[in-house]
Amino acid sequence: MRPSPLPRILRRRGEPEYPTFLELFFDLVYIFMLSRLSAGLAEDLTVRGAARTAVLLMAAWWVWVLTAWLTDLFNPRLPVIQATVLAVMFGTLLMAIAVPHAFADYGWLFVAAYFGIHLVRDAVLIPGTRVNRPIQARSIRVFFWLSVTAVPWVAGAFVQGTARLLLWSVAVAVDLGSARVGWPTPKLGRTELASQIFTGTHLSERHREIFIISLGELVLSAGIGLADSGFQAGRVAASALAFASAVVLFQLYFHRVRQLLAPPAVTVVERVRPGTSTSYSHLVMVAGVLVVSTSASLVIDRPFSVAPAAWIAAILGGPALFLLGSCLFDAVLTGRVLWSRALGIVVLCAIGPAMAPLPPLAILAVANLILLLVLVWETLPAHSRLVRVTVPTG
Questions:
Q1: Residue closest to 145 by CA, chosen among 180, 110, 194, 95
Q2: What is the pLDDT of residues 170-186, one digit of tens each?
Q3: Which domain holds residue 259?
Q4: CA–CA separation, 104 vs 76, rounded Å?
Q5: Residue 219 shares a structural domain with residue 157
């Protein structure tokens, strides 16, 4: 039997694997998206507010992931793919506009933009791969699961409050969870989890870029805080600490990524299960940076006030969430957890009750200090970490 021909729309092996300028341009809309999510969380720093932000972030992340996979599997230099990416970018902009009121009057806009993005994408990919049925089946599987989650997404837009949150939570969990099991679909089966459908180098670079975008939003918060500070000492200090957070998070991320993403690990990312796991671990890291940005904006606004419990949880929880994501990323590629980062999570969680008497500025400084200690420990030469023990003789 002759193998099915490769459609012209597909990226071919051996083509340049690094992201195109269009992909970098697409990521810019996520600065706006993350800033809207951060501002919304700052306005409603409660358990309910955090849950709502998590649902919206996961929906936005799913759009980014599918777009990264789109330009990984399909030729991003073709005009039809470029037009699709720009359409997705515009839809993401509409989603971001809806974010502050997605659980109020703009739920319909968020859902309409979300589904418009997916429909445009599938309207291009499914016909474009018709000469190769196995490849076309991948897009049909994704479309099938989109039709499944359409029910709770659309139903959620017509109800309010807790009902909307529950319906959308189920919908986004199914969206992300269906990828983890290969999108099992009637008559089409599922995508084999061990099959190689990604380009490891390209996908790894795309994840680095979106993490940089999340840091850009944190730098934006620090810059806006400093610009609006009136150069009051406390607010200037808080802005400086917010910028320092961005620097330390950058160093922690790229110090480890350079070690992990050697060629064998990049090859692992090409398979379905590790590829999706890499995306989801980056979601946790980006969520951590988002919470750091939210807490930094609050601290800049009131650096010396009494810190409510929710503020303490955000100031310490953001770094802990980032470290958790980096531990998950480590586990995906190596099967192990970096103990220094796991210990950092434990320390950040354990010191929470002791932070209550401190002003927000001091708590932010402590959180930065813990991250810095983790970084310093990891960058020390291995022989410098050993404790020399002298055993007396005679």
A1: 180
A2: 999 999 988 888 788 88
A3: 200-380
A4: 37
A5: no
Dihedral angle over CA of 147, 153, 156, 161, nearest 10: 160
Q: How far apart are CA 195 and CA 210, in angstroms?
A: 25
Interior/surface letters 120-153, b for 16+ CB within 10 angstroms, e for the rest: bbbebbbebbeebeebbbbbbbbbbbbeebeebb
Establish if 229 belongs to a structural domain. Answer: yes
Query: Which of 180, 214, 247 is the C-terminal boundary of a domain?
Result: 180
pTM of the model: 0.89
- Going 118 to 121 to 126 to 129, the CA torsion angle's sign is negative
19 secondary structure, DSSP code: P
Domain membership of residue 67 (yes or no) is yes
Question: Do 87 and 227 share a domain, yes or no?
Answer: no
CA 21 – CA 106 distance, rounded (Å) = 32
Residue 60 sits in the same domain as residue 115: yes
3-class state of residue 74 by DSSP: strand
Write down the pLDDT at residue 203: 81
